[in-house]
Fold this sequence. Notes:
Distance between the termini: 152 Å
CATH topology: Methylamine Dehydrogenase, Chain H
CATH superfamily: YVTN repeat-like/Quinoprotein amine dehydrogenase
Oligomer: single chain
Order of helices and strands: HEEEEEEEEEEEEEEEEEEEEEEEEEEEEH
Structural class: mainly beta
CATH class: Mainly Beta
Helix content: 10-25%
Strand order of the largest sheet: 1-28-27-26
CATH architecture: 7 Propeller
Number of domains: 1
Strand content: 35-45%
Amino acid sequence: xxxxxxxxxxxxxxxxYSRVKPVVITICIIMGIIFxxxxxxxFGIPFINDLSKPxxxxxxxxxxTIASTAIxxxxxxxxxxxxxDALSSSHEIVPQVEDASEYRWFGDxxxxxxxxxxxxxxxxxxxxxxxxxxxxxxxxxRTTRVFEHELIGDHFMFAQMNDKYIVFLDAYMDxxxxxxxYDRQNxxxxxxxxxxxxxxxxxxxxxxxxxxxxxxxxxxxxxxxVCDLDTMESxxxxxxxxxxxxxxxxSIMDGMIVWANAEHGGxxxxxxxxxxxxxxxxxxxxxxxTGTYVHDPEGNGKYFAxxxxxxxxxxxxxxxxxxxxxxxxxxxxxxxxxxxDYIVYSKDQAIWLYSFEADRHFRLTSSDTAAQFMGISDGxxxxxxxxxRGNDILMYLELPIETESAxxxxxx
Length: 412
C-alpha cells in the first residue's frame, strides 16, 4: 500500500481572555448608555410631561338638586309711628304772659282736649314756689292763668283737669295740705276743699267725676280713697296696714281703678303681687296674678303696666294684654305712663314709646338731648329738657292715635 502521508493539522490558538476583557466591558458600557437614553426618551419624557400638566378635576356625578328653603322671618307689624317724625313734632311750652320772665320753673303738666294745665314757679323770698296755675292752648300757644286763687298752703301740686273739674293739692312745703276741686261748669264757683291731708303729699288722679289717691293716715296705716266730685262723697276703698303697697300709687282711667296688693294677704316681704281693679260701671272687682312684684300699676281696661321695684335704676317695666302673661318691656326704667296701647317710659335720660299692637319700641327724643319724663295724658307726652341746667324747658309731643282705620292705612 502506498504510504499515506499524515497531514498535521494545526489548531488555532485561543484568544486570550486578558486581551478581550477590556473591549467587552467597553462595548457593554456603550450599549447600556444607549439603552438608558432610549428608555428615557421612550418612557421618561412622556412621564415628566404628564407630571407638568395640570391635573383635571374629574366631573362629579350628576346629582339631584334640592332647592334650599329660606327660614321664614316674622313679619314686622306696621305702626303709625313708622312715619311719625317725633323730633320735628316736639314743642316747647313758653308762657305768653306779661311777667313770663319771672317764671323759671314749671311742673305737673296735664293735657285735656287741646289745653295743657301746668304749674308755674318763681322766686318768693329767695325760695322757688309753684304759685300759679297756667293753661296753654296747643292750637295757638295762648297762655292764661286759671283763676286768681289765694292758696291756703304754699304751692300747687298734682294739678289735673277734664271738662268738668280742675283738681290740685294746695300743699305746704313741709307736707300736708288740702285736696281742692274747682267746678269748671259753674262760672260762679269757688275752689272747694275735698279733704284735708295731714301727712305727706298724696298724688291725686282724676277721671270723669271721680278722684282717687292713697294717703298716709297713721304711723303704719295707708288708705286708698275714692271721691265722687258730683256729690263730694268719699269712701275708703282699701286699707293697707303695715304694708309697702300703701306706697304704691293707684290709677284711674277709662272707668277702671287699679292698685297693687300682696298676693297672699298683706305680708311686707311678699315677693309677688296682684293687681286689683274695680270697674266703676259694674262695681265689680277683679284681681290679676302677675307673678312679679308690682309697684305703681296702671290699667285702662285693655292693658296693664307696672314696675317691679320702687323707681330705681334697676327697675323693670312690665306690661300685659289684659290678664295674659306679663311681658318684660324694658329694664332700667325710672318712670312710665300708659295711654291707649302705648307705654311711654324714660330710660338713660331718653324718652321711649312701646306699642303693644306693633310690639316695638320707638325713641321720641334725640340722642343729644337729656330728658326727664313728666307724664302722658290725653295723647300728649311731656318731658323736661335737662341737657343744660338753668331755667326749666318743658316739652310736649302729641302722639298719633292708633285707630283701626289708622292700622288699615298702615297695612295692618
